[in-house]
Specification:
Length: 298
């Protein structure tokens, strides 16, 4: 059974100032998302599921629907503020969706096979998708999952803070913890995360971090729903609280309900967090195209 690619594309792009998911960066007008689907198809994925918001549906479908449906099955799923457990009402001042964990949960009815979750605005490189397929082919336990990890130094932006899941693992590569650090930036020759109280925690630049490339089995949906219900009970009145995938993963590992294999990846990663990142991304994609790793048109 071929795995599915689940694309998280419901973000609002507040730091970028627009829908970076549909912004062209390739020599043929391709978006970062185009490259992810291209890499997934040639690695052996069999379907694509988009998580979007209703208010961007027309823009997304006008760019991607016809393009992708000609070569791979595509499904569309929505993430909205009011898609909550029965009896829960979002606070009136809530603006952003409920986070990546909530987004994944929205696809539970659309996916019955192993699946990878990625951000629509991150470039992961073809090696990441190959590693995901290899993991699915060689590991069939329902609650054994995986994460493609990158070195922190290769994931920073020169133009502001970034959010990364900092990972620790056993000697044989099983994740022991992943903690979301939401304000990471380089200062001089060091990297720090700024905590909620304003203090700064130093981070080693070779630390493996999650870039939200996860490999799951269908059993994950039930586990995720259980944790999301608890999250909502504790955070329904908080207009800024977000339910992150790493939060659920950390809880599952600590309770021995799941294992997560860390798949270190030496391939290229880059993304667009700020508008200033875009020229750098265009330059890197042009280099990959010139080296023959991607066609100029596809």
């Amino acid at each position: 059974m071929k795995p599915t690619l689940l694309l998280l594309a419901a973000g609002m792009g507040s730091r970028y100032g627009g829908l970076k998911q549909i912004d062209p960066v390739g020599p043929g007008g391709q978006t970062i998302l185009d490259y992810s689907v291209f890499d997934a198809k040639r690695a052996g994925f069999g379907k694509v599921v988009f998580i979007i918001r209703k208010d961007i549906e027309d823009e997304f479908k006008s760019v991607f629907a016809e393009k992708f449906s000609a070569t791979i099955p595509v499904e569309w799923v929505f993430q909205e503020l009011d898609m909550l457990p029965e009896g829960s009402i979002p606070p009136p001042d809530r603006v952003k969706p409920w986070g990546t964990g909530h987004a994944v949960l929205m696809a539970a009815r659309n996916i019955n096979e192993p699946f990878a979750v990625i951000n629509a605005d991150d470039f992961y490189g073809q090696e990441a998708f190959k590693k995901a397929v290899e993991f699915f082919d060689n590991n069939h336990k329902d609650t054994d999952y995986a994460m493609v990890a990158y070195q922190l130094k290769n994931t920073l932006s020169d133009f502001g803070t970034v959010s990364r899941g900092v990972c620790e693992s056993t000697e044989d590569g099983w994740l022991t913890s992943v903690v979301e650090n939401t304000k990471i930036a380089r200062e001089g020759d060091q990297v720090f995360n700024t905590e909620t109280d304003g203090s700064k925690t130093p981070l080693h630049e070779d630390t493996l971090v999650s870039m939200n490339f996860w490999c799951f089995k269908p059993a994950f949906f039930g586990q995720l729903e259980s944790h999301f219900r608890r999250f909502i009970l504790n955070n329904i009145t908080n207009p800024k609280a977000e339910f992150y995938i790493p939060t659920a993963i950390d809880a599952l590992i600590n309770s021995n309900q799941a294992r997560v294999k860390v798949l270190p990846n030496t391939g290229q990663w880059f993304g667009i967090t700020y508008k200033e990142d875009k020229p750098l991304v265009i330059g890197k994609i042009n280099d990959l195209t010139a080296n023959g790793e991607y066609p100029s048109e596809f």
